[in-house]
Amino acid sequence: MSNQGKIHSVNEWYQEFLENRLIPPRRAHDFELGTPEGFAVILDEIQLNGAQPGCPYYLQVYFFDTRIRQFFGRPYRTRAVPAFEGVIRFNEELFFHCSILGEEVFLVFELIEVSPKDPSDQMTVGWTIQIINSHQQALQEYSTNRRNLQKTRLRLYPGTPKALVYTSNIEKETQAMTGAIQCTLLVHSKLLSCSDFIEEFAIIGGMDDVPGLDEFENAPQLASPHLLPPIPTFLDDVTISFGQHGDSIEKGLLDSINVDRLYRENFLPGKEPIPQMHVLERRLRVGVHNGFSFLGNPLVVHLSNWEPQEPGNPHSMRRRSKSPSRRTSRVDPSSILYVPTKISIPKVVADSRLAIVFALDYLMGIRGNDGSIQFTQSVLLCWGAWKPFGNEKFESGHQSVMVPLVGGPRPNPEETLCFKSLIRIFRNDHSNLPAASPQVVLNFNFYTGDEKPTIPREPRRGEKPSVSRPKSEPITEEIIPSKSRKDSPKKHQNELFEDEGFEEHLPTIKSPTSPNFHQISFDKQIDKVIDRSFIQSPRNDQEKDFVVMPGVAKGATVPRSIHSLLLRKEFPQILDRNGEIPESVEPTGGKLNEVIEKNDPLDTNEIVVQLMAFKWLNRFAHLSGGRKVFFTFQFYRFPQVTTERLLIDGESASEPGLLKRLNQQDQLLIDDGFGFMVRLTVDRSSLSPSDPLEFVKFLDENPLQIDAWDADSLQLIGTIDLSLKCLLRNGLESVQSLVQCQIIQRALPEAPKTTGLLFVRLACIGHPSSNQIDLVESKNPAIVSKRLQKLSEPGESFKIRVRPLNPAHENALQRFLYAQRLDISQRYAEAFDSNNLENLEQQEKLKGNYDFTNSKNEKMVRKFVFDTELEAYKKLRNESKAGRLLHTLFKGITTEHRIYSSIGESIFFEFLLHNTFPEPINCSVDIEEPGLRIISNADDWAFYKKVHNLETPLEKDFIRTGQNGQTTIFLKPKEALYVPFLYEDLKSSNHTDGQITQTKAIFKRFPSLEPLSILHLTIEHRPYILHKSMRFFGEEHSNLSKIIRLRGFEGKPRPILMKCSDPTVKVALRNSGVEQDLCLTAFCGQSCTSKQFLVLFYADSHAYRQIGVWQISIHSFSHFEIKGILSQTTHFTLEMKKSTTERQLIHFYPSSPQIFPSVSQPMLMNAEETKISMEFRPESTGNELQMLTAVDTSTRELLGGWMVHAKTTQPQITKQFEIKIPLSCRKELHKKLPIHNPYGVPRIFRITSSRPELVKIGDEMLQMASGVSTTASLIFLPIVQKAISIEVLIFIQNVDTGQPEETYSLKLSYVNV
């Protein structure tokens, strides 16, 4: 590493941090959900009309967001270059990485002219834009052959780029042109390997130096980034001292937070009693910063303190815990926070420009009576930084360090508003704070290498914490007198530790000496694992890599060239009810107009989804050749739709392949044209009368998620999040839109990747409800046609209250029942449980057993049969009368009610129970359905009344439950009482979608058990509305844990509660500041099996207002690890489970061409064969996840699946050669490479190159006798056009053994001669 640019003090690091800060995007959460991609821009030259000869010009490059009209990012300024004959040649390279969001974000190039006389006199002479979208066209890779680079010429517009704030289409409104800029936008995949070292949307120049990365002499650092090796680093005995005023500082913080909350809630202090916020957690964030970005998310450790908490003081910091040793006895132990464990800091490298940043963070909130926490707020109290390698001499791997923590409105790496300076906490308050200034100081022991720090012992019971002085004193630099503030006006803004409340010149800390590396012993490895489990915070601060970001529903406009291609092909036309083509709308759609939709006479919607074309991204089109796919999706309340196998036909580098249907024999179906069409019909009768706009709200708020699968390998290609806003008709007859969608792979345990593009046509066709269409009457021929099931006739079933028959006791029916004292229950059993039908069948059998042709006993037998049959009919007639009478009586006291429920929903209604007797009675309730219950809690009843705006009376303790679980209700004479019922679908005995079940709730008089009233409840189970679906792949027989960021609840209440349809899955809702996360843990079963469950979200603690249903699928695959060497073949063996089939034809499909079987495919395997020989030949170094599946070619059944974790390292270099190639030479150069066979037998060697586009091997196979030396021909291709140094590896492999023999390194230096 060179010594240039070394930063030796914290203030110099802080100055670099301020210079490298970027303007963050205001909608950062959208960018987090995009697909990360690395890019490189090659700036060649600018042709400027009217350029002043010799006048210097420079370019300023930054980002612009068209949706919110904002300039953002870290701008980059090129060097000033003079113009020559109207041409300005820059020849610079820019690098950045960002999330792809279609055409919403682009680069802005601003050309600025500098006056030769006065450099401060500068003027913008032109500007242009470059769209950042690697999916509109196939961008070239930065590391590939640059001979045929497709350079782009961009128009230079006059004026200033501020015009973008006021116009949406600059090309239409600006016809003038001042020149053109020639540049090239390339995809730079290797840049993602160092994405932690530079912020997203930070533009880095080719000559910029990024701390933490290795440097190159003649090449840009980010052209082929190499990370410096990490150093094991530990912090031990970490304490934070508040001096003498720890409690006072926290009290001042809490008072400010509570007063601020009063004003935000529009309350006057002291007038409105509201719950006070308290300190829930004290946390210390520790992260490594290189001046550009944190190297990974900072670690979060929870702080502890001593002494039991003072009674009646919720703000006290004093709690009992174990105590570490202290560096000074002058500090009150009650004002000290400490970390009870050792901290292991990752990603620390020996670079003097890195700093370790510490931030003291307080989590505030209100703790409810039920233990729940609400209104959480995180406050950054103070922060500080320390440079571990600020000096270049290192004496020891262990130092004691003291770092002051400061506050105030200065910028900090957390990019969080920090609490005011500690000096100013009580400056305007009336408090008892002494005149001494409060100081927050962080103390710790710093270790490098593998030294094991001493573990402080716990104090015994009753023993005071130790505050003895350690053996090693804190190392501090000498105080260097600095200039006064008059001489240094910028010091207050740019220096980190300048604060008027501390000393005039705060001392900084000396850096420790160089690290001392030792071999790690077994017990030290155990300590590392234990410490890591302590420092990770499971509640609030999981690393960003582990947080799954759901997809954002969006769609891009199809480019004109592809639109023209699709228009020329014979796709089935989509027509409306009048036979006309629907009106075309933009993929983004319009805004929902509820008034128009509610009064639309065309209240039946025919939704058409037409899958038209598919395009692989180049580096992902390797699954089985990428020729056959199929799709699955679930729309609204419809069941899942699975398409046929579709062929991708005619795909090229610039155009997508058209989708064509295949039959079972994989033959093309030409008659039905191209594409695959699905038609789904939703009419008004299938919607709930309580919410007739449910369907259009679904289109406005929820996406359609389509899963794309490879039809041969059965591997998931990715998921499409398709916005449905374009289907909102807003009073039109019909609408349609052609959409280009990204296919993003998020199911694997790695960063999301965009694997392809899908071109879809969506249409919504309106039909009148008076002319309800049938599927066959539609004018659109679809392969899959489904219609949503209509709801049954509602009647009064949607009313909240149910009224039974309300008879007066004086009528004839009641007097008859009361006088005769009929035993209703006994009559009911006799009427409905008798064997009347069986008796009639026995009579028929009896008649068949006699021979009526015999004249001797004919009369006797006929008389016997007639008498027996007559008695049977008399009995049946009498019993039928009683049955009909009881049926009429029960019908008079029975109330029928119909409800419509989906999974996880709760239905509330009230039943009016009437005592028609002139005396008080006890009434018992028999309920046969486990999902139906009476609400006994008055608070719950009041909640449901408030939700439905019911004014009915509310009573407390109106129900009594006995020891045997029997429920009784007391009724006064002739009293009517509202009984609240709640039906919970998750507790129901049967909630199959589309099924209708019936149940009864019988109210009986106690103890005679005479029925008083009967509630006959009909439950129609509707299919649920799916709001989001996600898939994950996990290792078999292990727990899969995921943290999913909640998205899709914009405009809805915040989720308060959630439930899971699978009781074996553990789910929890986690609040991370303003964000919310879903934490789930599920067990993965046997390989090639899947588990599917629903997560239900509610906006209240009663689980009543359901606001979301997410479907999560978990697929289990086997785990396999393999290690390989770059460009060399590694053999490994996979083991499959024994098959029940005697012989199978199996084909193995890897997700990367780097893995392949050792024998030809498909292979015929017997039932006893379980081991398969495979080969791995990596093409790049690092860790990579590969998917491998085994499929039965005859049944297309998945037989095996593996998640292969591959680790590839660089080969061991045996020889190095340095070759200089002049750039002026445009011919192929031939060189000879000596090769020697050291064996005593003849050998065949294969010679390959790591960069065949630069160095080509003349004869790859060399057959050599024993002990013979020869030469291999190397051909150097003239494709490099600028001075650069490139390393090319030459691999020599033994063909007989398949093992590597030697690896040569060629350092190619392209120079100007």
Automatic annotation (TrEMBL):
Signal peptide: none annotated. Residues 316-328 have a biased composition (Basic residues). It comes from the Eukaryota. Residues 895-995, 1031-1115, 1127-1208, 1215-1310 form the NPHP4 Ig-like domain. Residues 566-744 form the NPHP4 C2-like domain. GO terms for biological process: negative regulation of canonical Wnt signaling pathway; protein localization to ciliary transition zone. Residues 306-331, 452-503 are annotated as: Disordered. It holds the Pfam family Ig_NPH4_3rd. GO terms for cellular component: ciliary basal body; ciliary base; ciliary transition zone; non-motile cilium. Residues 452-474, 484-495 have a biased composition (Basic and acidic residues). PANTHER family: NEPHROCYSTIN-4. This is Nephrocystin-4. It comes from Mesorhabditis belari.
